[in-house]
Write the structure tokens for this entry.
Amino acid sequence: MENIKVIKSICRQFNIDGKLVWVDPIMYGHINSTYEAKFDCGLDHYRKYIIQKINKEVFKKPEEVMENIFNVTRYIINNAIERGENAKTIALHFKLTTDGKQFYIDEDGQYWRCYRFIDKSVTYQSTQNPKILEETGKAFGRFQNELRDFDATILHETIRDFHNTLKRYEQLEQAIKDDIALRKTYVQKEINEYLALKDKALQMHYMVAHNELPLRVTHNDTKCNNVLFDEATDDYLTVIDLDTVMPGLVGFDFGDAVRFAANTAEEDEADMANVRLDLRKFEAFTKGFLSEVKDSLTDKEKETLVLGAITMTIECGTRFLADYLNGDTYFRVDKINQNFNRARCQLKLAQDMIEKEEKMNMIVRKYL
Ligand code: ADP
Ligand code: GN1
Ligand code: MG
């Protein structure tokens, strides 16, 4: 985290009216560094902004990330305006720098961006509330629909092979081989269990290779903390964290959201006895998601939604385990063994999903 003085000077680089009152870090999210800043605009009027440092280790070409986000948000906002809707909360609104750029590059070569804080909004790290789960489903389903006719060829691939499960397994196998942080012996059981799941995890990868599943414009990071909700009604407002919007599989957007939101525990739960797939939560999310997208899915997409959830859970777990073996260099950690617990947790969750696969498929069929 930067010190507040630095953030204050970053704020001055953007075209924001008013006087900075305070700035606070937001600790959610494993990748970027995010701050909330409040400005006094006079006459008892205040405005808040998000100031964010893009993680350059993860996003090697921040210019391309920003170009994607500008194109996608402009497209969504213009469509809403054409439909006569209020575009204020439908997508993120970015502020340009004082010299008209999409980001500010500081003396250390770090990239910063600024967007409007969506007022009266909340995010949830986890929830038991079926209404919020259904709204999360609707938000990501709607996002998918909004971008149905968006020209995918103008999008940059911001992280290569982001949801290439085969490559993710290769990265894990490399991390096991290198054992840089000398942690392999402690996690041998989990390594073996992940390797045993490889065939299952690669099924959709081979379906893509055989053109059995269409590539669509997808979000690719569909955690419920990437949705803003109205703090009074819990209706969804908008989807955020658009850094990974790229061509992808609808089943992976569905699946990654299920991985995060339908777990009985947190993503980094240390006690595996608490970790299961909650069918009630799964149903609420599925209901919301399918109410938005069911008419545009192919038969194969419908058949593989649950497999998408299993795949994303295993894939994410291989990434956590690889990062643990590599000495925690990718995902932000603030607890001991956090990446190991994240990896164990995804393993337990994926195994439980495999046991419940038929029940999950019955729920999907109910809402199709
Ligand atoms: P990361 O890529 O690190 O996950 P996010 O873009 O998801 O970063 O932002 C982190 C958190 O900041 C979100 O989970 C949300 O709580 C908050 N946040 C981000 N953008 C906004 C916004 N426009 N309005 C209100 N809160 C926001
Ligand atoms: C990261 O940025 P955040 O916290 O929304 C990661 C996702 C993982 C997720 C696991 C760019 O998401 O792929 O699924 O952590 N984002 C990136 O919680 O790697
Ligand atoms: Mg996020």
User: Anything to note?
Assistant: The chain has a mean pLDDT of 94. The first strand starts at residue 19 and ends at 26. DSSP finds twelve helices and eleven strands in the chain. Residues 26, 28-29, 31-32, 34, 50, 92, 115, 117-118, 121, 123, 225-226, 228, 240-241 surround adenosine-5'-diphosphate (ligand 1) (CB under 6 Å).
